[in-house]
Amino acid sequence: VAMLLTILNFGALPLAFWETRTPWMKLAYGGLLAIASIGLYAQLARPVSRPRKTVLMAVTVVSLMALVGAVWWLTRAEPDRGAALMGRSWTYCPSRVVLLAAPTLAGLLLLMRRWAPTNLRAAGFAAGLAAGGVGMCVYAVSCGESSPTFVAVWYTVGALVSALLGATLALPGPTGEKNT
User: Fold this and answer.
1) Which has more confidence, 104 or 87?
2) What angle do CA 7, 139, 94 make, to 5 degrees?
3) Confidence at residue 173, expressed as pLDDT on a 0 to 100 scale
């Protein structure tokens, strides 16, 4: 669903762009974050879990991308640093990641109803982070930004917004039922 939304609404990158490292870097970051977060979600969506290793994996993925983005930014000439950080699409990149994460988030929250998480907020956050990773991967198909700094900041913002949305939607409603 998310890929269809991407292609129909935002188009796909030209084939020549796929001959560069940029889209693969974005896919690797989003994919690794999704994989680590799916593992975290799978543990947190069940009763009484201790997901130390999967938390560490997700934090490591984000930290490595932050390090790559910071090194990239610091090695740019002063006048180029603004463009490396802001790109041309910083105003809408995070919202597109969230939009494209929404179908996955909905599915993960529905799946969570069949399990019995004891910490709804944490499980919802992990579901949103996993969905954010998927949204990052799907958005990479149409995003022409090439700076690792841009990806480290704005893609991550989109994934974190998705995670916060997941934490919010997973909380029980006023009648005690889950909002999924």
Assistant:
1) 104
2) 130
3) 57
Q: What is the pLDDT of residues 36-74, one digit of tens each?
A: 999 899 888 877 777 777 788 888 888 888 888 888 888
What's the farthest any 2 CA atoms get from each other in the chain? 57
pLDDT of the residue at 137: 93
Instruction: Give me the helices (H) in the chain, please.
Output: 2-10, 22-44, 52-74, 78-86, 93-112, 120-140, 148-150, 156-169
Q: Across the strands, what pairs with 178?
A: 172
Calculate the alpha carbon distances from 94 to 1, 38, 68, 174 in Å.
18, 20, 19, 30
Tokens representing 14 are: 């030209």
